[in-house]
Design goal:
The chain is α/β, with parallel strands linked by helices. It is built from 6 helices and 6 strands, in the order βαβααβαββαβα. Helix 3 packs across helix 4.
């Protein structure tokens, strides 16, 4: 039987919304220890445009510094990094820089990959809408190849007709069927780590 994971779950550009806490509770109910850093320090937004503006106001470098600070006390535990959209990009950057990472769960988002990125078979699972204006097919195909070259063991699940943040029941993108399927597959992934 696999041991429970310590998971750091990063929010999307909307901020630390109820859907992120609900996801954390779902993961805790499966036996995992889950941490949900608030990279926006209490601020949330109502639209993707406001989220982009807030992300730009804070700056990508500062968001990464805040994320590193949040995981520093946990880093000796062999973390599983996870995130929603922007949070997925942050989780990916941290996981690829952590030689002790146990896994990477990406929900709705990826990030660019440094040419020298290397990992020793890091298990990675991506769940993404199909099509997704923020994760177009050409980008995802190139991302998949780069992750493979970096040594990651990647699985990609695409959900036709779903909106970008289809797991958040408070957003117009929500797709209940796709969200439930995502959580079933993700929980099985986490159970195998």
């Amino acid at each position: 039987m696999a041991r429970p994971s310590t998971i750091v779950l990063f929010h999307s550009a909307y901020g630390l919304r109820p859907a992120v806490h609900a996801a954390a509770e779902r993961l805790r109910a499966a036996g995992h220890e889950v941490h949900v850093p608030d990279l926006y320090e209490g601020r949330t937004v109502e639209s993707v445009e406001e989220g982009r503006a807030l992300k730009d106001e804070i700056g990508t470098d500062e968001l990464l510094v805040r994320a590193v600070r949040a995981v520093a006390p946990l880093s000796a535990r062999g973390l599983v990094y996870a995130g929603f959209s922007l949070g997925g990009a942050i989780a990916q950057n941290l996981a690829l820089g952590d030689t002790e990472a146990r896994g990477l769960l990406l929900l709705h988002g990826t990030s660019d990959i440094a040419e020298d990125a290397a990992t020793d078979g890091l298990p990675v699972q991506l769940h993404v809408a199909d099509p997704d204006p923020f994760e177009p097919h050409d980008w995802l195909n190139a991302w998949y190849l780069r992750m493979g070259r970096a040594g990651a063991d990647v699985e990609v699940y695409r959900y036709q007709g779903a909106g970008h943040l289809y797991t958040d029941p408070e957003l117009p993108d929500y797709d209940e069927q796709a969200a439930e399927r995502t959580w079933q597959v993700a929980l099985a992934f986490l159970a195998e780590l």
